[in-house]
Request: fold
Amino acid sequence: MKSQELKIVRVLPEDNHKLLEIGRQTFYDAFGPPLNTEENIHYYLSKKFTLEEITNEILNPESQFYFVLHKDELAGYLKLNSGKAQTEAVNGNSIEIERIYVIKSNQGKGIGKYMLDKIVAIATENAVDFIWLGVWDKNTRAIQFYEQNGFKIFNRHQFMLGTDKQIDLMMKRMLS
Reply:
């Protein structure tokens, strides 16, 4: 896929319905059955992916959402957190990638790498020391992708998906 066919745009409050739709769909596609039970996925979506929750997240000044467009069609989205919006307290000047998702039909086309390059550019503009994220320890494909792009495991934390206690690997990429 040619990078000139891709562009990244900031999500605005009036985009909340579109963000909710892509957020729910990409999360379900990534982590739904058979990886997790239908009950746990629906419970999580009903708590974290509501219009009220998404709107509050968009309005948080320490969070930024971006849509990625391929030929002006929605191909994915990402969420960055800084300051107190980060889901974990980490030592140092950092930005967290809380969400980075590509629509299933667009996976394997280089969009994830494009998104990561844009995140590095945003983090560099903001003069942060590192970028970090949490990735499910069973998501070997994502772990390999992040390792290939300079991320290293630095910790672990628990993630509750419904009633299932899961482990996320915390990975970071130094920028300075």
